[in-house]
Amino acid sequence: MPVPRRGRRRLGRLPTVAEHRASSVAHMDGDSVPHKGHKRRRRRTGGTHAAWRELVHQLNERYRQEFERAEALAARLRDLEQSRLIRLAQRLRVCKAKLLQLVSVFNVARKRSAPALRGEGQTAATPLAWGRHQGSDSPQDMSLAPPVRADRVSVIVPFRDQVQVLRQCLSSLRSLCQPPGQVILLDNGSRRASTLRWLERIGRHGRVTVVDCPGAFHFSRLCNLGARHATGEALLFLNSDTEALTPESLEQMLAALNRPDVGIVGALLLYPDGTVQHAGIYPPPSAAWCADPAGLHFDPIALSGLPARGAWFHRYRGERLAGIHKRLPQLQSVPAVTGACLLVRTSLFISLGGFDEGLPVTHNDVDLCLRAWAAGYRVVLASRALFLHYECLTRGFAAIQGAG
Q1: Which of 4, 171, 181, 342 could be stapled to 237 by a disulfide with Cβ–Cβ 3.0 to 4.6 Å?
Q2: Would you say 264 and 372 are in contact if contact means Cβ atoms under 8 Å apart?
Q3: For residue 171, which phi and psi values (nearest 5 degrees)?
Q4: What is the pTM of this model?
Q5: CA atoms of 339 and 359, how far apart (whole Å)
Q6: Which of 312, 177, 158 is nearest to 249 (CA)?
Q7: 8 A C-beta contact, residue 18 and residue 27
């Protein structure tokens, strides 16, 4: 039965392959595509991608230009490094460092060989037996003794834990122009594991001797025990909470000790804030021993008869270093010096009997100095030998009256 004309749908002509391709190209270029029975409209798919491609291309060009510029700068730097002028500057820098090193070695050798150039011999070092006199007992005989060198000094340091403070003390000794030849560490019952591990390592060092000294803190007993282990010609008793502030501190003290009339040498000790902690220990001014109210001039015979226990005090304590340094001579006689930094010949220390063990904590340094005055020796302060002293860290915070 034939289909009515009204219900039929006319099928249009199918497009050819060429027409289909042309239509696709028109879509990609963003041209207007006419549609039968619809209004004309514009598609923008292709234009957006073109803008992004242009932006990426510009960025790539910029990066390429910067890379080429960096390559050119690197090439110029390589050319400069290979230039004769730069090589000459590098050689001059190396020669300057070697020259400074040679000058330093020459200065040290000159200082060490000065006694030999003057015709003064050196004595061989032997361990000193306790209670046996080696050397002389009078200033007249001491004038014949050879000068003590830094490498013939034994440093005696009592301590208990506080390993960080002790390490700073030893580090300052190593930084001296002429470091000491022996360091004796007196361990007064350290318990911390870190301290014990450090002592095990430091004990392997050739110049360091660790001596175990358990028990209550007894400064005189500890120092006397350290002197028995010493092999040097001079003893430097040093608290563990001290640090050498100048590289020539030990040289300044040895220069004073090598004078024939000097028996004991002390140093100028400062607090961490720069104020003076020790510049000599004095008794109260009295007509019995001093010739002026300030106590700067005194009678050694009358001074040696004073008791060690008493109201001894540190002169200039708490004052600024800049205020007193010009007033202090390079070498000044003082009644006594503190045991926190005390240098004495080993032979004299033995002949005086060491520290009085009846004075366990305080006044033992004053007693030793008074006995040196009585034997005819001077006790002097080397004000150019500067040490830092935290005070009381070696034996803890305690009431200090008089010396110490």
Answers
A1: 342
A2: yes
A3: -65, -40
A4: 0.61
A5: 12
A6: 177
A7: no
